[in-house]
């Protein structure tokens, strides 16, 4: 803490100092660990403007452990020299001394000693000179005394090569008086307390400043799934535009409502086992609206309502086959059929967002189930221009304003148009939806009046969501392999607002 | 959507001008095509098989063009060019004519044995045709495109084309026992019986996909000429004898199938496209087909149909105001020769044999709109006045989702399809006890059934997120599916709410507290009286004995809560205790 004795001493020294103090020098002068002094500097800094401290890094020479030993006890060669009595010493014995090996060769090259190989008990070592100057020890002692600068560059590097010296970088502070310098420091309060408020003592107390660079503590909370946040926004858009939500809580559908009612012929490739999940149990629909079924059958096989029909043998058993709906248009067909039964006809705007299923090959952007968004308007005299107008309003609410329309083919809409928008990032037109006017062969057998047109469009929920949240693999978004951290971190869904920064990395 | 691959330079030569890629892309967009990819044979091979294999392959630029699935007349270079040239008013649509030969007409006699598997056949002759390598390639490619699309991989229609000069009519389309059919098939050097061929082609990457159409049938379809030469064994393979080459001058075309209308369309498309290269362009030599009942028909039909549509109807459907004359011009550009007749508001439209997709006035309206240019149409807002309503079940779901998150639970979104194991074995149940609906054609075990409970999905979500800090608190509000014979399709959805708590302790009190909170939100008071709710000790295979309770609300059982059985935890590859709750929210609507 700042009121430690070191801090107080530091402040007193600073008061007396002219200009400032070096933390390392002061530590040496006071005989305290430098680290303790640094601690005092930091705690004083935290109190505000009492002191100013500038970080400096200086290089300093220090002795290694071996260097310290030599400074204390002399160099290995000196120790070898001293251990040799006037009558000499057997070389084998000398080698057993702690400094023996290194010291021997050094003392030899210094010509302090010699070896007599002809001695009776094997080689023997003798002094050559009477006394020696232990230069290594002297130099190391100089460094130890903080006077390394008295040594030449060459001398220092020689000692370093012998691993007796090492150069260390020392981080010191240049401490000077701050604008609110005072030698008497009072303890700063960390937080406001109820007692301070009631006693009014907060008026006289200094408060420790906050570190505004630190992160806050995230609240404990639950999170909504990003895809469903987007779903909520799409629902909102449709509701804002006056569209009523259709019931879609029936994943199981008969081929009749999924295909036949939409004038999709029974040989259509979408009705293939490779594209659609059929059911083994319950394999067939139990009830179909038979009157209507007959009109549908006739339209497919013979035509009618101004149509040539497809001229093939339409089979009821094919229509009865149950499946997992491949689009929510089956629900739209049911809703339009219900609408057709209400007389007189009342205009309607419908929407739905729900799951659909495809027995497709799976990849990074395709799953066997996904969500389809669908909008439908039924009224007298609707035109392609109306469809485009509604699409413009709808996509504007999604923040997509640059649209163009391409002729396309859908089995149950005619005219059909694919909706493209200009993607700034990809710098090209990308398909964002599909649309059209339902065929009369679909609407008239339902019993809708002849001059009623139904415009419709659809898109997937996943694609705009993946673009919105920058997700490349659909499995990261949908299904149990979802990354919960992504769910936790995902921002609000504001479809018409500018995209935010990309989501945090590292958790992906 | 079928993709047609054409050589760019060949296309531009036929169009009589060149385009930049962007210009051609734009033209496609306007016409309802999509320039999908610009590539070359070399690039394709190198992408699929690596750079080494691509060495030496052609680097002629190819345009891959996506064609609408109902426009069989645009499936080859010839058709694309004709379509675009007429669209750009550079040429007039040709008139296709069927002509009777001066000599004897080619005859194809159908015997009654074919009735049970492929009863229909049609035929025609392209007389004095002049192929080049490119034209021949396109001819073969068109047949393949037709086979893949309108012919439904040869199941509905199969095409055979033959060098007529090697054959001698009349031809017989019959059916025989496979062991009695023996011939030298296309590109083979010796004869095989049909049985042998079916075996050989099992390993043929192209043909193996068609074998199932006739496999296991007692009789196989086969076409002979008057000398007993096999033309083809539809829908599998042609004979080698009548193989056509780039030098063939007279082509006999036969299409057999189960769908008469489509067989006729296919024949019309082939002859309209390639009669262009006959000595008398767009003239097709007729052939006679005699059906088992003795009735005889002349093909190709090449029928032109007339429709009369009022100009104001077209204007009203599209949302434009064009004169009848202009509309007639627009339609003529779409290969639908039109003129104003009658009171000056009626347009008579001639639908050529190439446009089998035009079956209703709405198809004509679309073509007028395409020629006008979709992007030139004035946008307008419908005046339809409506009051929006939410689907009550979804409205309740949305409200509950927010408060579940506010209660500290995180939303999961799991699959509606799963394995039998997920909803039965792993939860200690027998599959028959689940009332689950079963999928007949799942490609993998992940899609065997529709889920009957949300719990497995949440447990799998936890298993995939075991690295996340504990506790994990998840919920999902979504539909499950069970069989229900009171519904028209024999099954129905229920909207469930499921929540799990996964931590070092089971946390039953937390899940129980969540239930209390949900009931508070739904304004259901505790207690058995006055439509309140209680939980009562119960048991369930998925729960630890003595740690399971049934939830009764408003006088009915709505679900269960409890501590999961260690076996369940282990089977879902989890290691910590876990408590869960799952209820049906529909009683609270």
UniProtKB/TrEMBL annotation, chain A:
GO biological processes: phenylalanyl-tRNA aminoacylation
UniProt source species: Acinonyx jubatus (Cheetah)
Family according to the record: Belongs to the class-II aminoacyl-tRNA synthetase family. Phe-tRNA synthetase alpha subunit type 2 subfamily.
Domain of life: Eukaryota
Name of this protein: Phenylalanine--tRNA ligase alpha subunit
Molecular function via GO: ATP binding; metal ion binding; phenylalanine-tRNA ligase activity; tRNA binding
Gene: FARSA
Organism lineage: Eukaryota, Metazoa, Chordata, Craniata, Vertebrata
Coarse class of the protein's main subcellular location: cytoplasm
EC number(s) reported in the record: 6.1.1.20
Entry keywords, A to Z: Acetylation, Aminoacyl-tRNA synthetase, ATP-binding, Cytoplasm, Ligase, Magnesium, Metal-binding, Nucleotide-binding, Phosphoprotein, Protein biosynthesis
Subcellular localization, as worded in the UniProt entry: Cytoplasm
Domain Aminoacyl-transfer RNA synthetases class-II family profile: 229-499
Automatic annotation (TrEMBL), chain B:
Transmembrane segment boundaries: none
Main location group: cytoplasm
Stored InterPro entries: aa-tRNA-synth_II/BPL/LPL, B3/B4_tRNA-bd, DNA-bd_dom_put_sf, Phe-tRNA-ligase_IIc_bsu, Phe-tRNA-synth_IIc_bsu_arc_euk, Phe-tRNA_synthase-like_B3/B4, PheRS_beta_core, PhetRS_B1
Its EC number(s): 6.1.1.20
GO terms (BP aspect): phenylalanyl-tRNA aminoacylation
Compartments (UniProt record): Cytoplasm
Enzyme class, spelled out: ligase
Entry keyword set: Aminoacyl-tRNA synthetase, ATP-binding, Cytoplasm, Ligase, Magnesium, Metal-binding, Nucleotide-binding, Protein biosynthesis
The keyword Flavoprotein is annotated on this UniProt entry: no
GO molecular function term, any single one: phenylalanine-tRNA ligase activity
B5 domain sequence ranges: 302-379
Reaction equations catalysed: tRNA(Phe) + L-phenylalanine + ATP = L-phenylalanyl-tRNA(Phe) + AMP + diphosphate + H(+)
Cofactor dependence: Mg(2+)
GO CC, any one term: phenylalanine-tRNA ligase complex
Family under the similarity heading: Belongs to the phenylalanyl-tRNA synthetase beta subunit family. Type 2 subfamily.
Subunit structure, as described in the record: Heterotetramer; dimer of two heterodimers formed by FARSA and FARSB.
Protein name in UniProt: Phenylalanine--tRNA ligase beta subunit
Name of the gene: FARSB
């Amino acid at each position: 803490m700042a009121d430690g004795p070191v801090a107080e001493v530091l402040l007193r020294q600073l008061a007396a100092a002219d200009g400032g103090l070096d933390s390392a020098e002061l530590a040496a002068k006071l005989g305290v660990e430098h680290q303790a002094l640094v601690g005092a500097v930091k705690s004083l800094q935290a109190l505000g403007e009492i002191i100013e401290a500038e970080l400096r890094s200086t290089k300093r020479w220090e002795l290694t452990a071996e260097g310290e030993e030599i400074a204390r006890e002399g160099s290995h060669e000196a120790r070898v020299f001293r251990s040799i009595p006037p009558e000499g010493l057997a070389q084998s014995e000398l080698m057993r001394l702690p400094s023996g090996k290194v010291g021997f060769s050094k003392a030899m090259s210094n010509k302090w000693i010699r070896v007599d190989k002809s001695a009776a008990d094997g080689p023997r070592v003798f002094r050559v000179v009477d006394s020696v100057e232990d230069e290594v020890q002297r130099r190391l002692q100089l460094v130890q005394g903080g006077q390394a600068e008295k040594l030449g560059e060459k001398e220092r590097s020689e000692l370093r090569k012998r691993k007796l010296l090492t150069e260390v970088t020392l981080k010191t502070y240049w401490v000077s008086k701050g604008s609110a310098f005072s030698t008497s420091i009072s303890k700063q309060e960390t937080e406001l307390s109820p007692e301070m408020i009631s006693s009014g003592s907060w008026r006289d107390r200094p408060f420790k400043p906050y570190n505004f660079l630190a992160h806050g503590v995230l609240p404990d909370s639950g999170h909504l799934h990003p895809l469903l946040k987007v779903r909520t926004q799409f629902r909102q858009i449709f509701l804002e535009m006056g569209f009523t939500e259709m019931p879609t809580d029936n994943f199981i559908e008969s081929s009749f409502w999924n295909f036949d009612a939409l004038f999709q012929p029974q040989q259509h490739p979408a009705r293939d086992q490779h594209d659609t999940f059929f059911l083994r149990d319950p394999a067939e629909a139990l009830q179909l609206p038979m009157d209507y079924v007959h009109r549908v059958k006739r339209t497919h096989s013979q035509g009618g309502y101004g149509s040539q029909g497809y001229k093939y043998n339409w089979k009821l058993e094919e229509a009865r086959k149950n499946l997992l709906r491949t689009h929510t248009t089956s629900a739209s067909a049911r809703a339009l059929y219900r609408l057709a039964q209400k007389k007189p006809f009342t205009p309607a705007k419908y929407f739905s967002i729900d799951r659909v299923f495809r027995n497709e090959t799976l990849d990074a952007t395709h799953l066997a189930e996904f969500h389809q968004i669908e909008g439908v308007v039924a009224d007298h005299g609707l035109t392609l221009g109306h469809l485009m107008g509604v699409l413009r309003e709808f996509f504007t609410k999604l923040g997509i304003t640059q649209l163009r329309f391409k002729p396309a083919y859908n089995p149950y809409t005619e005219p059909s148009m694919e909706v493209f928008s200009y993607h700034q990032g990809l710098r090209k037109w990308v398909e964002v939806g599909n649309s059209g006017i339902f065929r009369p062969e679909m609407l008239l057998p339902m019993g809708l009046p002849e001059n009623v047109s139904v415009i419709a469009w659809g898109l997937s929920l996943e694609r705009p969501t993946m673009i919105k949240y920058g997700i490349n693999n659909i499995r990261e978004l949908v299904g149990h392999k979802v990354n919960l951290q992504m769910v936790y971190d995902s921002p609000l869904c504001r479809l018409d607002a500018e995209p935010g920064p990309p989501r945090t990395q590292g958790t992906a | 959507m079928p993709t047609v691959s054409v050589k760019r330079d060949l296309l531009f030569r036929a169009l009589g001008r060149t385009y930049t890629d962007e210009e051609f892309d734009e033209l496609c967009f306007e016409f309802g095509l999509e320039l999908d990819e610009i590539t070359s044979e070399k690039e394709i091979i190198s992408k699929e098989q690596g750079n080494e294999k691509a060495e030496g392959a052609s680097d002629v630029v190819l345009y891959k063009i996506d064609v609408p699935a109902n426009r069989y007349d645009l499936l080859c270079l010839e058709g694309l060019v004709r379509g675009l040239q007429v669209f750009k008013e550079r040429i007039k649509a040709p008139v296709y004519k069927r002509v009777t030969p001066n000599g004897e007409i080619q005859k194809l006699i159908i015997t009654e044995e074919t009735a049970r598997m492929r009863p229909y056949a049609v035929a025609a002759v392209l007389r004095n045709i002049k192929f080049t390598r490119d034209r021949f390639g396109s001819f073969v490619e068109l047949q393949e495109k037709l086979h893949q699309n309108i012919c439904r991989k040869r199941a509905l229609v199969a095409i055979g084309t033959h060098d007529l000069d090697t054959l001698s009519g009349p031809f017989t389309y019959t059916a025989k026992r496979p062991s009695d059919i023996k011939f030298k098939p296309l590109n083979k050097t010796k004869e095989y019986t049909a049985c042998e061929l079916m075996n050989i082609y099992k390993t043929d990457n192209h043909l193996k996909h068609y074998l199932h159409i006739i496999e296991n049938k007692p009789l196989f379809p086969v076409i002979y000429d008057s000398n007993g030469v096999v033309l083809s064994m539809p829908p599998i393979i042609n004979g080698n004898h009548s193989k056509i080459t780039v030098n063939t001058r007279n082509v006999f075309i036969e299409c057999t199938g189960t769908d008469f209308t489509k067989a006729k369309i296919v024949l019309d498309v082939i002859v309209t496209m390639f009669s262009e290269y006959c000595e008398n362009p767009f003239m097709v030599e007729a052939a006679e087909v005699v059906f088992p009942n003795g009735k005889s028909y002349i093909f190709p039909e090449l029928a032109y149909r007339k429709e009369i549509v009022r100009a104001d109807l077209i204007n009203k459907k599209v949302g434009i105001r064009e004169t009848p004359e202009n509309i007639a011009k627009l339609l003529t550009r779409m290969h639908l020769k039109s003129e104003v007749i009658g009171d000056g508001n009626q347009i008579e439209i001639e639908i050529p044999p190439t446009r089998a997709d035009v079956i209703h006035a709405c198809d004509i309206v679309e073509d007028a709109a395409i020629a006008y240019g979709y992007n030139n149409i004035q946008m307008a807002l419908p005046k339809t006045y409506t009051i929006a309503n939410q689907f009550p079940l979804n409205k309740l779901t949305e409200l509950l989702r927010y408060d579940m998150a506010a209660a500290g639970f995180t939303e999961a979104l799991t699959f509606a399809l799963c394995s039998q194991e997920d909803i039965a074995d792993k939860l200690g149940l027998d599959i028959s006890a689940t009332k689950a609906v079963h999928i007949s054609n799942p490609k993998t075990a992940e899609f065997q059934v529709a889920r009957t409970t949300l719990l497995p999905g949440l447990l799998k979500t936890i298993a995939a997120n075991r690295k996340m800090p504990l506790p994990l608190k998840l919920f999902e509000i979504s539909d499950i599916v069970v069989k229900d014979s009171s519904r028209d399709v024999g099954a129905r959805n229920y909207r469930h709410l499921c929540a799990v708590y996964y931590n070092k302790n089971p946390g039953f009190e937390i899940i129980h507290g969540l239930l209390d909170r949900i009931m508070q939100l739904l304004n259901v008071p505790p207690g058995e009286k006055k439509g309140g709710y209680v939980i009562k000790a119960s048991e369930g295979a998925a729960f630890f004995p003595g740690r399971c309770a049934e939830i009764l609300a408003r006088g009915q059982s709505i679900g269960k809560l409890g501590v999961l059985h260690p076996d369940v935890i282990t089977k879902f590859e989890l290691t910590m205790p876990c408590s869960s709750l799952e209820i049906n929210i529909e009683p609270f609507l």
